[in-house]
Amino acid sequence: MTAPLEQPIKLTSFSHGGGCGCKIAPGVLSAILKNSAGFPVPKELMVGIETADDAAVYKLNDEQALIATTDFFMPIVDDPYDFGRIAATNAISDVYAMGGTPIMALALVGMPINKLPVETIGLIIKGGESICAEAGIPIAGGHTIDSVEPIYGLVVLGLVHPSKVKRNADAREGDVLILSKPLGVGVLSAALKKGVLGDDGYKAMIDNTTKLNKPGKALAEMAGVHALTDVTGFGLLGHLLELARGAKLTARLTMADIPLLPGVEQLAHEGYFTGASGRNWDAYGSDVELAATVKPAQQALLTDPQTSGGLLVSVDAASVDEVLALFRREGFGEAAVIGAMAAGDARVVVA
Predict the structure, then answer these.
(1) Which one-letter DSSP state was computed for residue 174?
(2) What mean pLDDT is predicted for residues 194-211?
(3) Which terminus of the chain has a lower count of CB atoms within 10 Å, N or C?
(4) Once rounded to an integer, what is the mean pLDDT over residues 336-351?
(5) So what's the pLDDT on residue 33?
(6) Quick check: 309 and 97 in contact, CB under 8 A?
(7) Residue 102 has pLDDT above 60, yes or no
(8) For residue 39, what are the contacts with CB-CB under 8 A and spacing of at least 6?
């Protein structure tokens, strides 16, 4: 009698939440950090924690500033190689979002050693290495622990000219908002975990989450680009609110102009979205004004946690065509104008 085939390991079954949906909710995070003790800030620290920016930036000299960031999470997909690729792409993105060039990474690896075969763990690490190779950087070291849930990510270091740093707080009144990647990764991940995501949906998810945000380097050279960030675990509304608060302006969005991954609005309408989407809305929904025409499924997509999401650019109107042309040359064909920054209270208005 032939022995039954061994069932493939489902990485997502080990994790209580996947990808950037693992992030602590914005409201809880604020409560944790609000009583943090102050500390002396050296004058060389150009970007720290004050505006919830994508990475820290430390000025080394008149020509170079060091960008430092880290990101890690639990599996968002079951394929170990894809998990490694997604996690690495997501971590490197923060350097691009500051306008920098990544130079080196360190691996952060936590695995349930008694539950996952070493071959599976090796594939996760190989996936991360493949993306680092695409970004042109080495994984020069790291740290490993035996943990209950699989965790993988990177510490990433980069360089940028001090005058070219793109913060998330420097948007100006009249700027146009451009988003480089479509929304819906969290919705697709929820559908995957429920076993209803087809091959096309999975491919769209992987293509989106493993596309490096390399245009960030070129955006740093454009004087018309005033603010830059990437859209990750707090959803489009959360990260846009950070821009609005930093600039003390109102961000106005047009729902119909926001690019979405194929099929995600219908999936959200059917109830396939992550718990993080609701937690995000609970944390910052009081600072968002939604038009009556915005459907519940669309609201869920606006707060949908984006693992390895796109770049959100605040740019003067005269430079919009240049930015869109850059994105299209770099393979971001769905990049679109989604709104503008206007005078008013720090909030988001969606029409």
Answers:
(1) T
(2) 96
(3) N
(4) 98
(5) 56
(6) no
(7) yes
(8) none
Helix (H, G, I), strand (E, B) or coil at 212: coil
Q: What pLDDT, in 10s, does the model give residues 3-36? A: 333 446 778 776 665 555 555 555 555 554 556 6
Q: Using CA atoms, how far apart are residues 202 and 54, in angstroms rounded to an integer? A: 27
Instruction: Look at residues 323, 51, 314, 288 and name the one whose alpha carbon lies nearest to residue 173.
Output: 314
Which residue of the set 17, 19, 20, 139 is catalytic?
A: 20
Provide the H-helix boundaries in the chain: 26-33, 80-97, 118-135, 185-193, 199-209, 215-219, 235-247, 264-269, 275-284, 296-302, 320-329
Nearest CA-CA partner of 336 in 228, 176, 179? 179
Q: How confident is the model at residue 50 (pLDDT cuts 50, 70, 90)?
A: confident
Q: Are 300 and 224 in contact (CB under 8 A)?
A: no
Helix, strand or coil for residue 118?
helix
| Mean pLDDT value across residues 248-260 | 98
284 near 345, Cβ under 8 Å?
no
SS3 content of the chain, % helix, strand, coil (to 5): 40, 25, 40
Task: Provide the residue type at 170 as one letter.
Answer: D
Is the sign of the CA dihedral 84, 87, 92, 96 positive or negative? positive
Residue 259 per-residue DSSP state = -
pTM to 2 decimals?
Answer: 0.90
CA distance 153 to 234: 18
pLDDT at 62 over 80: yes
Greatest alpha-carbon span in the chain: 75
What does the alpha-carbon distance between residue 227 and residue 208 come to, in Å, rounded to a whole number? Answer: 22
How far, CA to CA in Å, does 53 sit from each of 57, 112, 147?
10, 32, 29
- pLDDT tens string 111-160: 999 999 999 999 999 999 999 999 999 999 999 999 999 999 999 999 99
| Active site (annotated) includes residue 20 | yes
- Would residue 83 be called left, alpha or beta, if left means φ above 0 and alpha means ψ between -120 and 50 degrees? alpha
